[in-house]
């Protein structure tokens, strides 16, 4: 397996994977800070404003033309939460020069642009541009309001929000609607300076390059104050459930969305993480899993019925779309699957199929630059170095007893149901 | 097995048409761990009226191609997902307007997985019971899409554009139409469209081309397919005009969703003309409406659009149309502004600098796509079923001239051919 070369420039940790397998350079910059109610909204708004223009290229149209001129370099950002952190990720994707005729090295130009975006924003009177801040406040508002448009996602997010009502994790990574109005170009700029000064910064590059080359480009492009790199705090995944919290919400929907939130007590860095992966896989990760077979294939109750593991928060969630009146039936069947996991009703076949699927996933992520980056970033986040090969070995070694041990600590925390408005 | 070398993008494909008519393409990707394979039939939701050779024409219920896709996964021995899982492969399938695609990706047991893929698709197993059981599942799939505002606004637009062409029918059909489906009709469609001569196998990834061809040849030689006459796909005549100029759907959404499109008047182009039309239209749309266009900035500044605004172009032998739009607080105002911009462009033509920039962008986008085995297999098959070659797209972008793009602009934007689809929240 090809390995990331590690370096450092000031507060930025550098991770470079030299490879000739791709026709592009893939670049990701992660900036993470503690997820907290009083900073979540401004932190979310920062990348929206930064992408509008830089000191050297103040106009958005000109900024986007610069990207187009780099053979349509991809540029995007995302804001999400992992464990107890809020992470802003910038992503760039640019063609390897050998396929096109270009005057400037495209990797240098791309890192130059990213450095400008992050460290040399457009300023007016010592603050962000009012025009851009105002416009992006509207955009962020629309984004938060539009969450309800996608009912599958809305239900999934509401379930976690209810489940983590007393933890920072209840917060949406894009922040709170009510907090947007009060943001000013001055307050946001102040928050930006704090963010840039304290965030954990990791820059990844995958492509036909070297650590030396990337370090040289970064030195030219990122105008950051010196200091030590910040690391991520360990997430606390212990949580005692007293009683199952049930929430029913009504809306004009045709299909009911049923979501269950479970506490696994296992974190990404724990020794039992491989067993937790197996638990999720046997329960609902795949089309051969218990949820798919019992909720969909046996009972024809749903088109989708699956589970997902969030290792950084120690949460496993179950989601399904059902006929409104099948709520009790579906909950009963899903709870039966959870119970059968606890009882150790795990066949040899379920074990071997799930291991083969997880193994396939861990091997094939090496064919995608961004997936390799995402996998490696897990180590940065959790402080746990564990290569995909190592995790694969651990998964292969998981026994039924290991899964039962995990299953017996899994606690059902929340049942969330989004249904129609008709009263029963 | 014949090598097809594409030097500019450093890729070599291998192609062979087997005796039974099956077309096989292999694209080895050095250094890749995974292999991705698709087994596709040129059979989609629009193929609901057909005949074979000089046989009698038959009309089948809407949504049957998709229903068939679901049912193929069931074998007498059980669910085929289980077999794939035991072999470490992640399998799936999808149905679109013009094709049904079965696929897997795996890093191990590649020969076994390729055989499983071919064998399960070539082994239909429908019973009255298993067909009935599937109806409940598909009903929930249809209901899931009913609640999906993005899906509804998009398919609402196609429904507004077309009177009779079956592209306007939902791919999964309706709850009513799927309950009319029985095993006899499924077998009939299967026999017609799953004949090897109507199918394409595409394998891309860390494979040896020669080994793949040997395996597929051996597998197919052991099976008996009677030669089949030509499939005739029948369509009612589609009027030139749009069906519903303005269509509104009510759903709980935070902001209205508005999509609009122009329906092409000329259909029945040769595959070559169609490909050029697609490439030129996409370029032209990007110059006028892309994120670095003057109009985009103006609409964003006046809060009429958000990041969701975009365009696409769909070109097929029987139907072709553009799609523009996204979320907007005011669909009428958005339309008026876009119309004004189009009128101005019709007068003045496209800006040359912007055109050259869009070209570079499209070329870069195309090369980026070649990083993804999934995209290569998908795009190659899509173009192949239209008798075109995906690798012709890059030279077409490179050679496209401003004059061609301007001619396309004049031809495409005819306001009589415009339809609008809006999803907005119900009155309180």
From TrEMBL, chain A:
A single GO molecular function term of this UniProt record: metal ion binding
Residues annotated as domain Peptidase M16 C-terminal: 183-356
UniProt-listed NCBIfam families: YfmF_fam
Protein's name in the database: Predicted Zn-dependent peptidase
From TrEMBL, chain B:
GO molecular function: metal ion binding
Taxonomic superkingdom: Bacteria
Entry's transmembrane regions: none
InterPro entries listed in its UniProt record: Metalloenz_LuxS/M16, MPP/UQCRC_Complex, Pept_M16_N, Peptidase_M16_C
Record domain Peptidase M16 N-terminal: where: 53-174
Domain Peptidase M16 C-terminal: 181-361
A Pfam cross-reference name: Peptidase_M16_C
NCBIfam families associated with the record: YfmH_fam
Name used for this protein in its record: Predicted Zn-dependent peptidase
Organism, as annotated: Paenibacillus algorifonticola
């Amino acid at each position: 397996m090809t390995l990331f070369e590690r370096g450092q420039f000031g507060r930025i940790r550098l991770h470079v994977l030299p490879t000739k397998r791709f026709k592009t350079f893939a670049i990701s910059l992660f900036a993470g800070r503690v997820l907290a109610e009083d900073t979540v909204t401004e932190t979310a708004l920062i990348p929206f404003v930064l992408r509008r223009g830089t000191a050297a290229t103040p106009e958005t149209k000109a900024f986007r033309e610069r990207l187009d001129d780099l053979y349509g370099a991809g540029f995007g950002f995302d804001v999400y939460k992992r464990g107890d952190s809020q992470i802003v990720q910038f992503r760039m994707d640019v063609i390897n020069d050998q396929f096109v005729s270009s005057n400037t090295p495209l990797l240098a130009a791309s890192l130059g642009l990213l450095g400008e975006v992050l460290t040399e924003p457009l300023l007016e009177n010592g603050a962000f541009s009012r025009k851009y801040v105002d416009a992006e406040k509207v955009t962020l508002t629309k984004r938060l309001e539009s969450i309800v448009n996608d009912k599958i996602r809305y239900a999934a997010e509401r379930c976690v929000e209810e489940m983590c009502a007393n933890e920072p994790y209840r917060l949406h990574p894009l922040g709170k609607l009510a907090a947007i109005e009060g943001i000013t170009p001055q307050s946001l700029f102040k928050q930006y300076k704090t963010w840039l000064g304290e965030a954990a910064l990791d820059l990844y590059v995958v492509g036909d390059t070297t650590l030396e080359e990337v370090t040289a480009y970064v030195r030219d492009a990122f105008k950051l104050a010196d200091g030590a790199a910040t690391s991520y705090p360990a997430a606390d995944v212990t949580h005692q459930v007293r009683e199952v919290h049930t929430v029913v919400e009504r809306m004009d929907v045709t299909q009911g969305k049923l979501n269950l939130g479970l506490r696994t007590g296992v974190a990404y860095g724990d020794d039992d993480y491989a067993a937790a992966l197996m638990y999720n896989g046997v329960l609902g990760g795949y089309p051969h899993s218990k949820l798919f077979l019992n909720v969909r294939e046996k009972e024809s109750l749903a088109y989708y019925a699956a589970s997902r593991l969030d290792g950084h928060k120690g949460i496993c969630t179950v989601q399904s779309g059902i006929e409104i009146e099948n709520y009790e039936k579906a909950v009963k069947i899903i709870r039966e699957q959870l119970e059968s996991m606890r009882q150790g009703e795990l066949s040899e076949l379920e074990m071997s199929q799930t291991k083969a699927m997880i193994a396939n996933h861990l091997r094939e992520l090496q064919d995608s630059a961004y997936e390799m980056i995402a996998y490696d970033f897990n180590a940065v986040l959790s402080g746990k170095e564990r290569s995909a090969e190592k995790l694969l070995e651990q998964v292969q070694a998981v026994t039924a007893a290991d899964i039962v041990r995990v299953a017996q600590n899994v606690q059902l925390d929340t049942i969330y149901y989004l249904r129609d408005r008709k009263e029963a | 097995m014949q090598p097809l070398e594409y030097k500019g993008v450093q890729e070599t494909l291998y192609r062979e048409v087997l005796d039974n008519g099956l077309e096989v393409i292999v694209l080895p990707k050095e250094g890749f761990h995974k292999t991705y394979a698709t087994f596709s039939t040129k059979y989609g939701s629009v193929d609901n009226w057909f005949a074979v050779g000089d046989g009698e024409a038959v009309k089948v219920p809407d949504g049957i191609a998709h229903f068939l896709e679901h049912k193929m996964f069931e074998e007498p021995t059980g669910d085929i997902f289980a077999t794939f899982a035991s072999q470490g492969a992640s399998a799936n399938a999808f149905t679109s307007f013009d094709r049904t695609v079965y696929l897997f990706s795996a890093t191990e047991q590649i020969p076994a997985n390729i055989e499983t893929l071919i064998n399960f698709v070539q082994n239909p197993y429908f019973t009255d019971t298993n067909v009935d059981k599937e109806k409940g599942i598909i009903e929930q799939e249809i209901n899931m899409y009913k609640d999906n505002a993005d899906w509804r606004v998009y398919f609402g637009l196609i429904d507004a554009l077309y009177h009779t062409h079956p592209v306007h029918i939902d791919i999964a059909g309706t709850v009513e139409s799927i309950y009319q489906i029985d095993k006899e009709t499924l077998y009939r469609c299967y026999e017609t469209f799953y004949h090897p001569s109507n199918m394409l196998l595409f394998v891309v990834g860390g494979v040896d081309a020669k080994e793949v061809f040997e395996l597929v040849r051996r597998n197919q030689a052991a099976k008996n397919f009677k030669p089949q006459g030509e499939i005739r796909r029948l369509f009612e005549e589609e009027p030139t005009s749009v069906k519903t100029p303005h269509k509104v759907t009510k759903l709980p959404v935070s902001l209205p969703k508005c999509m609009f499109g122009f329906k092409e008047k000329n259909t029945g182009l040769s595959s070559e003309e169609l490909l050029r039309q697609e490439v030129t239209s996409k370029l032209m749309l990007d110059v006028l409406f892309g994120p670095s266009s003057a109009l985009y900035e103006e609409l964003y500044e006046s809060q009429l659009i958000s990041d969701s605004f975009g365009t696409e172009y769909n070109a097929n032998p029987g139907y072709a149309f553009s799609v523009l739009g996204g979320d907007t607080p005011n669909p009428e105002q958005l339309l008026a502004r876009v119309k004004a911009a189009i009128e101005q462009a019709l007068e003045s033509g496209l800006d040359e600098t912007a055109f050259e920039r869009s070209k570079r962008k499209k070329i870069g986008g195309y090369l980026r796509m070649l990083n993804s085995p999934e995209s290569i297999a998908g795009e190659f098959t899509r173009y192949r079923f239209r008798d075109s070659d995906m690798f012709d797209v890059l030279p077409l972008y490179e050679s496209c001239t401003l004059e061609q793009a301007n001619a396309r602009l004049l031809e495409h934007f005819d306001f009589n051919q415009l339809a609008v689809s809006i999803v907005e929240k119900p009155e309180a």
